[in-house]
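Hey, can you fold this one?
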Amino acid sequence: MRKNSRKSARLNEEVMHELSIIIRDEIKDPRIHPMTSVTLVEVAPDLKTCKAYISVLGDEKEQQDTMTGLNSAAGYARKCLASSLNLRNTPEIRFMLDQSIEYGIRMSKKIDGLMEKEGRQS
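Sure. Predicted structure:
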């Protein structure tokens, strides 16, 4: 399977959808913050590994606790993923913290602050 094929894109979307359901409904770890979302999933072409980018709306401690909880539940998430998807190989999941949403919010606030400052000077 090529990296940028339609089948690969569909598989990434399906794994992302199933992982978000598993994190929301199946994993009962209290360390995982309720405002956790899966932003992107990249399944390797050989279906052996998978990178799941996770966004957590919270402070630094909540983000680290959530990542610790998800990494400890990675085996269980893989088992749930295997039962919900019919794949030849169920990929090993590696959770990565994605801070792009937080970065976007911070930049938007800075831009709004500059625009307000410009409005007051004119």
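The beta strands are 36-43, 49-56, 92-97. Let me know if you want another pass with a different chain boundary.
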